Amino acid sequence: MAHRFFRTAKATDIVEKLVTKLVYEHAIIEEGDRILIAVSGGKDSTILAWALSKIRPTLKRNYTLTAIHISSDFCACCKKSALEQRLNAWDIPFVDRFVPIIGRLKTGKSMNCYWCSTQRRLELLNYATEHHFNKLALGHHLDDIIETFFMNLTIKGTFSTMALSMPYRNYPVRIIRPLAYLEEQQIIACAAEQHILNNMCTCPYGMRSERRVMRARIANFTHNSSAVKRHILHALLNSPVFAGNNKESQG
Amino acid sequence: MAHRFFRTAKATDIVEKLVTKLVYEHAIIEEGDRILIAVSGGKDSTILAWALSKIRPTLKRNYTLTAIHISSDFCACCKKSALEQRLNAWDIPFVDRFVPIIGRLKTGKSMNCYWCSTQRRLELLNYATEHHFNKLALGHHLDDIIETFFMNLTIKGTFSTMALSMPYRNYPVRIIRPLAYLEEQQIIACAAEQHILNNMCTCPYGMRSERRVMRARIANFTHNSSAVKRHILHALLNSPVFAGNNKESQG
Q: What is the pTM of this model?
């Protein structure tokens, strides 16, 4: 895509183009798909839902979209009615599912991000399976993918990151990440253009501090350069690290 | 190897242990090898020559060592006689070969690091082939390997770096890098312990500025942590990125 486009286009057009490009290049949406979108109420998953609805006429593929929100016993801030209204405007049915994340903790265990995300993921997979969805769309973007890559590299000593598209061994569901070509700043700009940036839900636990530290280090290392991030993405896309398609998760 | 060893041992012992460990784990030195060591006169290749000579009794393998120095028409600073004396003390014959690096430049072309390193490498490979050496040992260390990895990742968008051991398609010679487990600071400490640090040759062109920038960024990104560097090495060793053994160079 021409560099000029990225310098001059509106953020909503950039998001639409890059999601369409990814969907075409990696065939992550197919005819007849029943796609469940995990919406937290935050900017990323909201823009994901908007984009998947927006590109439907262009893609010329029949697929259904449903959004699911996991409510929990520790977060009451979510502007659910605003979220539901938006999704309805985009022609996406909304499901709210309650999970007692803290309530499920065993005695003596304290709340942490790993526990929460595992409980949510299980709930999403169970719901998708019960209701015959074959794809689960998540709102991770390029910065999330690069961050995970560097965390795994420097903390675990492995080359791995979130896959673009990944089947599960124990569920008839494939995870897809249609925002993988987008930088966080492009998503923020898109949400700002749609005037939905200031009405978002954020987790009361905030970003894990180790992620926050890594994010700052990466910003420094890459000088926040889009070109550098895209070079890293290019390397990931051309390596088994990111293939994911062949790598099943047990989850 | 115990962390206590690294905290308390002398640098010379650390270098000896880590070179031995690498040679055993990756079988880069075999019975009957005729090894040509490329010595620039700098700290890395000098310590490489010292280490390969020092570990010979421990390895219990018969191999010969010869050191070759490429003299050129742009660098007269090298303390060749001191280098030769050291190598002789370590029982390593010394060969000096002159290459007109600037003299080989085509009209209108200016001197640069890529040209110089290509001319040197060709000379080394030709000499090794003519004199029936089957291994060419180079003094690249862990920091060089990580630096090259990050430069290739962020500038070229590929996962690749210097291999531990690599055959050539057009020469019956295999390149080996016995210092790959060592950080530069460990090599500097080893050279200091042997009182040879202040009598070294350095290239008058200095380090390429892009390498210098990358080195500073990596130091910041890893917080100069040995643990982080070793995690990156672990990932490299367990991935095709670094395998090299199966990847031939046309050089």
A: 0.87
